[in-house]
Amino acid sequence: MKKVEIHSEAVERIKKFEVNDTNLGFGKYVAPIMIQASYEKGEWRNLSLLPYGPLQLDPCAKVLHYGQEIFEGMKVFRHPNDDIYMFRPEMNARRFNQSARRMAMPEVPEDMFLEACEVICAYSKHLVPKRLGESLYLRPFMIATEVGMGIKPSNQFLFLIVASPSGSYFSGGSVKVYIERQEIRCAPGGIGFAKTGGNYAASLNSYAKTIELGCDQTMWLDAIEHKYIEEMSGMNFFAVINGDLHTPALTDTILDGVTRRSVIAIAQGQNIKVVERKLSIDELIEASKSGKCSEAFVCGTAAVIAPVSQLMDSDKTVFHMPNPQGKLSMQLREQLVGIQAGRVDAPEGWLYKIREINF
Ligand SMILES: Cc1ncc(COP(=O)(O)O)c(C=O)c1O
Questions:
Q1: pLDDT over 90 for what percent of the chain?
Q2: What's the gap in Å between 304 CA and the centre of ligand 1?
Q3: CATH number at 175-325
Q4: Which of 3, 40, 46, 159 is deepest in the core (most CB within 10 A)?
């Protein structure tokens, strides 16, 4: 396994860094250290913990023109005994490499990915917040650095990880969802299942509209019929219909969320039936009106689980969702947050303990 070389200036910087804010927000603070490794001639080199700082990139680096980049988002929690744990990081490592394969980028060996995450966490231990619902958010990412205007895969890359002590993503609790019926985010055979910047870039125009209309999240429909619910710009979707949990089945246009998988496992553990299938927006609206759908929620690493309070259609018609406080959503949320924070027993393998490093 590759060892992380620790730069002394990084250690000096992190030792002195503190965050004293009761409102951490999301991504407002960043630890003054970062992991970096470079890839060239077919191998990863110089895996290091460095002081956080700007990257020097040639203006012709391929990432700047052709968007060859991928990323992950994961969380680290402080338990009541002060030990710190990553939540299901192997799933992020595997998804990172799935994204890498689709984007013609080199894989980061799983043990290198996990070791790099563990080292930045261990050095940032004092930045892992204490309050329930807060965490240290890790952002591993990879960019194409080869210089050249030619449209072809890069053969040089940088792998980096930065860390941000964060609070909860939605301060309001529930979310208002805007149904995007015109634009699409990704098509079958495209890059929807990969966590790559292009998908998010494609969502931003609609995001601006979503916010302007007083909503929080854009709901994306399938690219072919503009009929079936796929996901939000940064979250997966669930609806409670006739007491069962329904969620769009995974396809190559949907991100395979770690939270989605965890919600499914927790629900099944509570004998709640989970149905993964095609779910049309018209069916959801009808089911909400008729009372068959008792609530809906979105889920993802950043937001955990948030109930949907209303849907807004493209013609600005608003459909109020039943149970906007989310009865089952909150039950599942409590269980998930409890597992992450070490208040509830975790299923085997869901928590990855960060080793103590004295520095
Ligand atoms: C497009 C998209 N869908 C779903 C999710 C939820 O995935 P996860 O639960 O792994 O954070 C995310 C967030 O990462 C996302 O960006």
A1: 93
A2: 10
A3: 3.20.10.10
A4: 159
